Automatic annotation (TrEMBL):
Domain UDP-glucose/GDP-mannose dehydrogenase C-terminal: 308-405
Keyword NAD: yes
Keyword NAD in annotation: yes
Region forming the signal peptide: none
InterPro entries in UniProt: 6-PGluconate_DH-like_C_sf, NAD(P)-bd_dom_sf, UDP-Glc/GDP-Man, UDP-Glc/GDP-Man_DH_C, UDP-Glc/GDP-Man_DH_C_sf, UDP-Glc/GDP-Man_DH_dimer, UDP-Glc/GDP-Man_DH_N, UDP_ManNAc/GlcNAc_DH
SMART domains: UDPG_MGDP_dh_C (SM00984)
Assigned protein family: Belongs to the UDP-glucose/GDP-mannose dehydrogenase family.
Keyword vocabulary terms for this entry: NAD, Oxidoreductase
GO biological process, one term: polysaccharide biosynthetic process
Protein name stated in the entry: Nucleotide sugar dehydrogenase
SUPFAM superfamilies referenced in this protein's UniProt entry, alphabetically: 6-phosphogluconate dehydrogenase C-terminal domain-like, NAD(P)-binding Rossmann-fold domains, UDP-glucose/GDP-mannose dehydrogenase C-terminal domain
GO molecular function: NAD binding; oxidoreductase activity, acting on the CH-CH group of donors, NAD or NADP as acceptor; oxidoreductase activity, acting on the CH-OH group of donors, NAD or NADP as acceptor
Length: 420
């Protein structure tokens, strides 16, 4: 089997690596020549544990190579971004998916399987992809097998989850679903469930929406408890002792290219009905403002206060800053005219033009508050003497609930913020 992957990002690259490592001949296509060149030397452009080792192996044994244009293959796998459009409800921008399908069409032959893994709005396969392939003269389900197989892997543990997660394969016809499932059987050990395309699209969106709504509930509860002077972390721990309750963790907001993006695709398709989903998004979007307000309050009495921020990525142990709530908190602190110094051991250079990253020592020097915005492993153990020695005020605000009590530094979190 030969597979042509279009889009070598966070999903296309690890998926290509898995197929190649299980014997499939893979050619990966990306529009960025730098990424293509880098990959062909066995070096990767994203942070994902274990991935570079696999890429090195499959480049060396000739099972994987990267290139700039699609070519003939048995299977085409589209894994390009689907950002939000800048319209009222931030609907799904299909331009990269449409362009990937159009770029692939000249190479499509009878018997091929076309897989879209990109997260897409409900009905995209039926209303947008199907017409393009039919217009090229193919009968779907007879000549060409077209499926949506949403990716569901968690950044940070992609390689494990690619193999062990269950997969949903939604075909435009039952024969399509069958052909798509056979492709994944080459390496997937989880269950492969066959369904239709629109069910697969909506299931994927609802997984991330479920999480977003539940985090919004935790974030709303945090603000309610803060006002009522109740320890929210204790409340969550105790409520979760009930066998059917699973409150999520509050935080500085919700980021990444999935949870902060996908729920809008549902809202945009049915705005007057998807009210809980929309409100949850608004609650999570507003969370950085609450954090910035609290941080500003904590340093309010100091002359020319300085805040040392720990973490800019959208979550712990990744280098990805897309939709990061930490960036939003920092921007809001800067808007308030505060002196902010940011450090993050997982990021080399900031994408924001408004602040630079410094090393930890420079960040804490003379600081009045250490503000933890990301749960990187490195931030779980602070040297409290070192913090106390270099900071002007030994105070830490941990928005992720990961820092234990420190002897020389006062640690605040969402649970005890109201006490200070
Ligand atoms: N977060 C909280 N509280 C929590 C859990 C997460 O504030 O209790 C925040 C994180 O800090 C982060 C955001 O939510 O800012 C998203 O992080 P995440 O770890 O929940 O999810 P992602 O975006 O890294 O990956 C999700 C996963 N979806 C689900 O768990 C349902 C993954 O399986 C999907 O493949 C991925 O989205 C995707 O690509 O859609």
């Amino acid at each position: 089997m030969k597979l042509c992957t279009i889009g070598l990002g966070y999903i296309g690259l690890p998926s290509s690596a898995m197929f190649a490592d299980h014997g499939t001949e893979v050619v990966g296509v990306d529009i960025d020549p730098q990424i293509v060149n880098l990959l062909n030397t066995g070096t990767i452009h994203i942070e994902e544990p274990g991935l570079e080792d696999v890429i090195k192996r499959v480049v060396a044994n000739g099972k994987f190579r990267a290139t700039l244009t699609p070519e003939r293959a048995d299977v085409f796998l589209i894994a390009v971004p689907t950002p939000n459009l800048n319209d009222t409800y931030k609907s799904c921008d299909l331009k990269y998916v449409i362009s990937a399908v159009n770029n692939m069409l000249p190479f499509l032959e009878k018997g091929n399987v076309v897989i879209v893994e990109s997260t897409i709005a409900p009905r995209t396969m039926d209303d947008h992809v199907r017409p393009l392939i039919e217009a090229a003269g193919f009968t779907i389900g007879e000549d060409i097998y077209v499926v949506h197989c949403p990716e569901r892997v968690l950044p940070g543990q992609i390689l494990h989850e690619l193999i062990h997660n269950n997969r949903i394969v939604g075909g435009l016809t039952p024969a399509c679903a069958e052909a798509g499932a056979a492709v994944y059987e080459t390496f997937v050990q989880g269950e492969i469930v066959r369904t239709d395309a629109k069910t697969a699209e909506m299931s994927k969106l609802m997984e991330n929406t479920f999480r977003d709504v539940n985090i919004a509930l935790a974030n709303e509860l945090t603000q309610v408890c803060h006002q009522l002077e109740i320890n929210v972390l204790d409340v969550i721990e105790m409520a979760n002792m009930h066998p059917r309750v699973n409150l999520h963790h509050p935080g500085p907001g919700v980021g990444g290219h999935c949870l902060a993006v996908d729920p809008y695709f549902i809202v945009a398709k049915a705005p007057s009905l998807a009210r809980i989903i929309h409100t949850a998004r608004q609650t999570n979007v507003q969370m950085p403002q609450f954090v910035a307000e609290q941080a500003a309050r904590l340093v309010g009495s100091r002359v020319r206060p300085k805040i040392a921020v720990f973490g800019v990525t959208y979550k712990g142990n990744v280098d990805d800053m897309r939709e990061s709530p930490a960036v939003e908190v920092i921007e809001q602190l800067l808007d308030r005219g505060l002196d902010v110094a940011v450090c993050d051991p997982h990021v080399e250079r900031s994408i924001s033009t408004r602040f630079e990253l410094v090393d930890e020592l420079e960040a804490i020097q003379g600081a009045d508050l250490a503000l933890v915005l990301v749960d990187h492993d490195e931030f779980k153990q602070f040297d409290s003497r070192r913090l106390a020695n270099y900071m002007r005020t030994p105070l830490l605000f941990d928005t992720k609930g990961i820092v234990n009590e420190l002897d020389a530094v006062k640690v605040l979190n969402f649970g005890n913020l109201h006490t200070h």
